[in-house]
């Protein structure tokens, strides 16, 4: 589902997305109709404009996250360093994409979101890590230790999450089952007190588990 206040933008995104195999745009709408349309069509993924005059993206995000079966939501923005980035991540957004994202990267991003991954546009990934690596508490309203006690396996999984690997890819790399990977990821989110993989990846960089200055975290391009 594509949510944008500008008809040309949402219809343009629909046409681009419908050219990709395996993707079906169930509906496009404005922010005021987003929650109703999500209930009706039950999309797996929502691309949501962050700045809308009728109903802002953060409010719509909260509406979508409150649904019984919330979709994975990625915020669309035209700004490399949007001041609403932290609020959106705390609100459960699974990533940020710039509106000038190339079509091939957009396809990968949507499919990654549908698989349960998180996505960040390359330019935004640098912003996230630099902005929050020194202050991981800014990403969550919950109290959790900045450096919880992690098992060796959890550290391995966390490093690969930060590299942008999916659960299946992590399992293949570590020779463990996908279900086991999911269990480790869930445990990591609880231990760090964060809502998603993007937030967990910030902690991985802060702890020095992966090289600094990534191109993307769990998204459409790799280092």
Describe this structure in words.
The protein is an alpha/beta fold and 223 residues long. 45% of the residues lie in helices and 9% in strands. It has ten helices and six strands, in the order βαβαβαβαβαβααααα. A six-stranded parallel β-sheet has the order 2-1-3-4-5-6, sandwiched between helices. Helix 7 packs across helix 10, helix 8 (167-174) crosses helix 9 (178-192) and helix 9 crosses helix 10. The chain starts with a strand and ends in a 17-residue tail after the last helix. The model is unreliable at 213-223 (pLDDT under 50).
Class per helix and strand makeup: alpha/beta
Name the helix and strand elements from N-terminus to C-terminus, one letter apiece: EHEHEHEHEHEHHHHH
**Count of alpha/pi helices:** 10
Trace the largest sheet across and list its strands.
Answer: 2-1-3-4-5-6
Short summary:
By secondary structure, this protein is α/β, with parallel strands linked by helices.
Layout of strands and helices, then pairs:
Blueprint: E1 2-3, H1 7-17, E2 28-29, H2 34-41, E3 45-49, H3 57-65, E4 72-77, H4 85-90, E5 95-98, H5 103-114, E6 119-120, H6 122-132, H7 152-162, H8 167-174, H9 178-192, H10 197-206
Parallel strand pairs: 1-2, 1-3, 3-4, 4-5, 5-6
Helix pairs in contact: 7-9, 7-10, 8-9, 9-10
């Amino acid at each position: 589902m594509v949510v944008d206040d500008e008809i040309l933008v949402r219809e343009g995104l629909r046409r681009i997305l419908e050219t990709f195999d395996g993707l079906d745009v169930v509906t496009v709408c404005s922010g005021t109709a987003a929650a109703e349309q999500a209930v009706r069509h039950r999309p797996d993924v929502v691309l949501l404009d962050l700045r809308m005059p009728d109903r802002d993206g953060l409010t719509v995000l909260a509406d979508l996250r409150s649904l019984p079966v919330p979709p994975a939501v990625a915020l669309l923005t035209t700004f490399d360093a949007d001041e609403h980035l932290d609020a959106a991540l705390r609100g459960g957004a699974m990533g940020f994409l710039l509106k000038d994202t190339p079509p091939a990267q957009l396809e990968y991003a949507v499919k990654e979101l549908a698989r349960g991954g998180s996505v960040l546009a390359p330019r935004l990934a640098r912003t996230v890590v630099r902005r929050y690596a020194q202050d991981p508490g800014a990403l969550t309203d919950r109290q959790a230790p900045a450096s919880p006690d992690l098992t060796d396996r959890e550290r391995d999984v966390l490093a690969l999450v930060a590299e942008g690997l999916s659960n299946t890819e992590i399992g293949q790399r570590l020779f463990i089952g996908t279900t086991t990977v999911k269990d480790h990821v869930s445990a990591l989110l609880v231990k760090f007190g964060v809502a998603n993989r993007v937030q967990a990846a910030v902690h991985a960089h802060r702890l020095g588990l992966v090289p600094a200055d990534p191109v993307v975290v769990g998204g459409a391009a790799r280092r």
